[in-house]
């Protein structure tokens, strides 16, 4: 019976939605960063995106992975005291394009939908004072009703997959457009950017060349450019990094600044946490 439950969970995690704009009819399954050097996403282009809000303001991103579960970064659920927040302190908005339109009750109409959470499940080894295992699951009070503009993402797996190194992924969010908040602003509309995925060895070597001692573990991956300029930034945290096949492969986690040369963004490598995700979801059925 347990094997059957886990198989059902796996199938739900690997189910693809139907993106209506840029994913050619198929869709599979980010440090508080806004996208630096990217472009505005088309409305409804990324139906798996979630805005996490607190006190009426966006603070992190997330990804729909099933009708009852959203994936985000562990540090997104930490408060100013470095303790985990309670579910009632966070709300999610799915089907969102413009934050201003949503808050003012205009434009988005039926597209944007608020969702509430009943459980917050950080990875058991995650600590608010550490960047390791920076991943968390949010369980919804009510299941999401999927539509053309609200769909789950598919989750990428290491098994049987080629290396992602040197390929390009897409990161998206409503974060800041510049590391210096006096020079940039937080995006009102969803933005996206294409970033190159690095090998962990090259990433760690590049950080060291910049005088930084970051260790990039096998549960992390890096994406960005040698000359910087394009990156996730403040308030993009928890959002998705999608592969070219539109699988969720990373969660915006940490880094140093935004879009700095030689310092690519660091993401949680989602494929390393699929067994944990399966066990959590199966245990909540």
TrEMBL record:
Family annotation (Pfam families): Trypsin
MF-aspect GO terms: serine-type endopeptidase activity
Keywords for this protein: Disulfide bond, Hydrolase, Signal
Stored InterPro entries: Peptidase_S1_PA, Peptidase_S1_PA_chymotrypsin, Peptidase_S1A, Trypsin_dom, TRYPSIN_HIS
Record-level GO BP terms: proteolysis
Sequence ranges assigned to domain Peptidase S1 in this UniProt record: 35-282
Signal sequence, renumbered to the chain: 1-19
Name the record gives this protein: Peptidase S1 domain-containing protein
Designated gene of the protein: Dana\GF23642
């Amino acid at each position: 019976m347990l094997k059957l439950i886990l198989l059902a969970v796996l199938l739900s995690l690997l189910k693809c939605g139907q993106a209506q704009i840029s994913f050619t009819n198929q869709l599979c399954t980010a440090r508080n960063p806004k996208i630096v050097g990217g472009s505005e996403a088309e409305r409804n282009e990324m139906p798996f995106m979630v805005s996490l809000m607190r006190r009426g303001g966006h603070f992190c991103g997330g990804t729909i992975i099933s009708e009852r579960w959203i994936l985000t970064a562990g540090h997104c659920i930490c408060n100013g005291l470095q303790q985990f927040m309670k579910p009632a302190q966070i709300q999610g908005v799915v089907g969102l394009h413009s934050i201003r339109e949503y808050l003012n009750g205009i434009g988005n109409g039926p597209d944007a939908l608020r969702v509430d959470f009943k459980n917050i499940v950080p990875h058991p080894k995650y600590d608010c004072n550490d960047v390791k295992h920076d991943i968390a699951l949010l369980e919804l009070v009510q299941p999401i009703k999927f539509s053309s503009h609200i769909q789950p993402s598919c989750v990428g797996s290491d098994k049987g997959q080629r290396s992602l190194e040197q390929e390009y992924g897409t990161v998206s969010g409503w974060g800041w457009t510049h590391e210096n908040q006096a020079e940039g602003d937080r995006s009102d509309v969803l933005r996206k950017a294409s970033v190159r995925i690095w090998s962990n060895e090259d990433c760690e070597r590049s950080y060291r060349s910049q005088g930084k001692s970051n260790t990039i573990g096998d549960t992390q991956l890096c994406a960005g450019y040698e000359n910087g300029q394009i990156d996730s930034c403040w308030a993009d945290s928890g959002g998705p990094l999608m592969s070219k096949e539109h699988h969720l492969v990373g969660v915006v986690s940490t880094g140093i600044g935004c879009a700095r040369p030689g310092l690519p963004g660091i993401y949680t490598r989602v494929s390393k946490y699929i067994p944990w995700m399966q066990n959590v979801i199966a245990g909540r059925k």
